[in-house]
Amino acid sequence: METTTKRTAMALSSETLLAHYQGHRNLTRRTIEAFPEKEFFSHNIGGMRTFAEMVMELLGIAGPGLQEIVSEKSAPLDEHVDHGNSKAKILKLWDEATEQINVLWPQIPTERFQEKILLFGMYEGTIISSILYFIDNEIHHRGQGFVYLRSLGIEPAAFYER
Amino acid sequence: METTTKRTAMALSSETLLAHYQGHRNLTRRTIEAFPEKEFFSHNIGGMRTFAEMVMELLGIAGPGLQEIVSEKSAPLDEHVDHGNSKAKILKLWDEATEQINVLWPQIPTERFQEKILLFGMYEGTIISSILYFIDNEIHHRGQGFVYLRSLGIEPAAFYER
Fold first, then answer.
1. What pTM was estimated for this model as a whole?
2. How high is the ipTM of this complex?
3. Which residues of A touch B (CB under 8 A)?
4. Which residues, listed in sequence order, are joined to residue A10 by a DSSP beta bridge?
């Protein structure tokens, strides 16, 4: 019985995961800030996307993804933002997404985390696997943004500061 | 009372987190494999470390970090490996760490995840925050490895394949 208890016990609370996600989003925000405006929208390496394009993907996933999880209404992924090459516009959208996530997150009853979903009508998984994907995908692309910054001679924020 | 239940409910099991970590480690393994041997040990961008140096950090953290969590005996972080510029040697150590993690992980009782630790005698946190850091740090550096590969004209494995 002890084994069974351990095997089904849980490691991470919903609140801790939200704080973890927002900590990462805060570091990504500081990574956006560190880019010169021109290079944010133009610099790339090896034919990859600009950091602005990666950030638009993150914006398309975070708020809309949680909205879909909460409302159970699916919409296609939209990675486009009319940013007008303005970092301030992107940062404003980033901050709005931060608020939206804080409002939506507590509306996910924890018993739903194992529920199967088809996010953006395309991506099969559970709610928890989808949310972990949001976070991992952001860390992955921000790591790439760090290389872009270094290649521009700019020191990124410390990875461990959130 | 309903609110209290929700607030303390848990989102992620220990088993799911282990599978998540090993899925990421499998993708990192394929990222190491994708590098030409010479560039794995020599290529960098913007004065950053080589991917081999980042991978030695990951090897220094994963097995030894879990060993410390399980044994409660602290040792300094060691990011050095006598690799002799051999990718095969690194991959062998990677696979040994995979096995070590699988053996050690179930020895962490889930009730310990919130326990405070000072990992490698230096890094303050809880067991769960430390393990999330292991994973996030690996995703971060692997994302950087992806840029190195792209800058060499090599297509990395798909991020969503684990």
1. 0.94
2. 0.93
3. 6-17, 20, 24, 45-48, 106, 109-111, 113, 128, 132-133, 136-137, 139-144, 146-153, 159-160
4. B13
